[in-house]
From TrEMBL:
Sections of the chain in a coiled coil: none
Region span, Disordered: 1-27, 306-326
Location of the Splicing factor cactin central domain: 20-208
UniProt similarity note: Belongs to the CACTIN family.
Residue ranges of every copy of the Splicing factor Cactin C-terminal domain listed in the record: 360-497
Organism for this UniProt entry: Aureobasidium pullulans (Black yeast)
GO terms classed as biological process: mRNA cis splicing, via spliceosome
Pfam families (alphabetical): Cactin_mid (PF10312), CactinC_cactus (PF09732)
Top-level taxon in the UniProt lineage: Eukaryota
Annotated protein name in UniProt: Splicing factor Cactin
GO CC aspect terms: cytoplasm; spliceosomal complex
Amino acid sequence: MDSGAMRRGGQPRSSIPAKRSAADAQEDAWVADEDRFVLKQAKKKAIIRARAGRADPIDLLAVTLRALDATKNGYDSDDDDQELPAVDPEAVFEGLDDIQLEELDKGIDTYLALEQSRSNRDFWNTMKVICKDRRRAAPGKLQTARGMSSVTPEIDRLLAPKTHEQLETLEKQVKAKLRSNDDIDVDYWENLLKSLSIYKAKARLRQVSKSVVGARLETLRQQQEQEALVLRNQVREKLNSASLAGTGEQLPVPESHVALDPEPLLRLNPEDKALISLDEDDFKQKLLQDRRRILKLGYIPTRHGAKTSSTDIAVPSEQKRDDMSRVTSALYDREAARGFNDNEEAFNAEEDVSSGRPKWADTYRPRKPRYFNRVQMGYEWNKYNQTHYDHENLPPKVVQGYKFNIFYPDLVDSTKAPTFRIERENGRKRGESFAPAGAEDTCLIRFIAGPPYEDIAFRIVDKEWDYSAKRERGFRSSFDKGILQLHFQFKKIYYRK
C-alpha cells in the first residue's frame, strides 16, 4: 500500500466519503430525471385538456409558453401547434375570483418547482407576480401601506405607460435614491420600488401577449402565401393546357364567368329587398363598434383548416347548425376555458319548444343561441340517507343547482336584456308535486330574447331557488357583454339529528 493511501499513524484512508458523494450524485441525477418526467407529463396533460376545450387557466398559460418556447423544452415535438388554442395570457387572468386565483398561484408554483429552463422560469415568475397582484387587488383586500390610497393613482400614471427596459432603468434610479443621504419621503420611494416589480411583470406580460399574437399572425400569413402559390400554379397549369389543346376555335366561356355578368346583379332578389339598408357613415360606425367588441374579447385568429380533435367537448347537433359566428365562438371558448369545479358537470338537456315563426323572421335569419351550462351535483343527507349511508358509503348524488351561460352577442336591440320564465306542465303550480315517490318534479326554463335569436329551453329539477347573494350560494342573474348568466342553487333543507 502506498503512502498516499495511508493516514497519519499508518491507518488506511476511508473510502466512505467518496462512495457517499457518488451515491448523492446518482440520487440527484435520478431526482432530476423524475422532475423532467413529471414536468413533461404536466405539459402533456395541459395540451390534452386545451384541445378538448376543458383547460384550466394554468393549462392555458402552459399552452402559451409552448408557443413562445422555441426549444419546446418539456413538450412533445410531434404536437401540432395549429391544433392548440392561441390564448392571450392577459385574458387568462380576467374574470377569475380569489379562489380561482389561489388555485392558479399553486399551479404556477408547481411549474416553478419543476422547470429548469431559465427563460421558462422567467415566464412563470412573471405570471406569479401578476397573479399575486390580482389577488391583492381582489374585492375586500385592503391596502395597509401609509398613504397608499393617494399614492397608487400617481404611481400608476407614472409606471403604466413605460416599457420593461424603461422600468429597469427607473428601478436602478430609485435604488440609488434610497441609498443616498437626500431628504426624501422614504415611504413613497419604497412603495414605488415595490410597485416597480409589479409593473415590470405587467410590461413583460404585454410583450408576451404581443409575441403570441405576432407568432400566430405570421404563421397565418405564411400559410396564406403557400395556399396562394398553390392556387396560382393550378390556374397557370389550366391556362397552359387550354392553350395547348386549342384548335383555333374560341374556347367556350365557363358558367362561372357567365354568372359574373353585371346585368343580373343590378336587380335585387325579393328576399334581399327586406334587408336593412345602411348609408356609408352608419356602416362604418357599426364596423368600428364590432371591431372594438372583438378587441375587448381578446380574440386571436386561428386557421379554419385546423383539424378538430376527436376529444373536443361534445356540442349538441342543434348548436352546430346554428349560431357559429366568430364572436359567439370566442365567448363559448372563453367560458369553456374556465373548466368545471369538482361538483360540476356539463348540462346540455335542451328541449324542443315551439314558439311559432317570429314576426321578424323575414328580416333576420332565426338562430338558436349557443350556451355553456353546468349542473351542480352533491349529496343530500336527509333522514333516510343518514340511516342507510355514511361518508365511506356515499348516497347517490342529486342536483343542487345550475349555471346557465347563454350567448347573445348579435342582439339587434342590445338595450333589452333577454329574459327567462319557468313553465310547468299539466297545470301544476309552484310548490305542487305530481311526481311519484322517490322521483322529483321537473319543469322547463325558457330563455327569451329578441331578433335574431329563437327561444331556447332546458328541463331542470323543480325545487325552490336560493336567492341569497352570499358568495357560497352564488346566485347571479345578469346580462353583460352579450352573455346572459343565470346561476342558482336550490335551498338546502337541514335535518336535526
